[in-house]
Amino acid sequence: MGEFVEGFDTLSDVYNAVTIFGSARTPPEDPYYEKAVETARLLAEEGFPIITGGGPGVMEAANRGCQEGTGCPSAATSSCRSSRGSTRTWSGRSTSAISSCGRRCSWKYSTAFIVFPGGYGTMDELFEALTLIQTGKSVTSP
């Protein structure tokens, strides 16, 4: 329960964030990695906070792009304890949370979701978000 409180407190002043999901196994030389960097950078330059996981791959790319865009003063990284590989925090703020808590935090403060290619974890995040929207537990998001 404390992780939920920490996550919501950390993100309490974040509005209109964009959550980026994607594979933790995407290497830096992959075209999708570069697209995630570019997407996050462009969004950050337009003033959108970025919320993503603290793992490698697309999550790292989104954090990097956010940092390159504006430094993302209001972006946050959910640093999952079960992440594979090293956890790199590029943004100015992070919260340590288990996967389900990090997801709830990202959904509460995001107005849009971007899903890059990934595996079962990425699909799980996508379908959980769609289910919450479909059942009226979350607002409709692009």
DSSP helical segment count = 5
Q: Specify Rg, calculated over alpha carbons.
A: 13 Å
Proportion of helical residues: 40-55%
Largest beta sheet: strand ordering: 4-3-2-1-5
Distance between the termini: 29 Å
Q: What proportion of the residues form beta strands (DSSP E)?
A: 15-25%
Overall pLDDT metric: 77
H/E element order: HEHEHEEHEH
Low-confidence stretches: 79-87, 96-100
> What gross morphology would you assign?
globular
- Main β sheet profile: 5 strands, parallel
The count of strands amounts to 5
Structural class: alpha/beta
Describe the structure in your own words.
There is one protein chain. This protein is of the alpha/beta class and 142 residues long. Helices cover 44% and strands 17% of the residues. It contains 5 helices and 5 strands; from the N terminus they run H-E-H-E-H-E-E-H-E-H. A 5-stranded parallel β-sheet has the order 4-3-2-1-5, sandwiched between helices. The radius of gyration is 13 Å and the shape is globular.
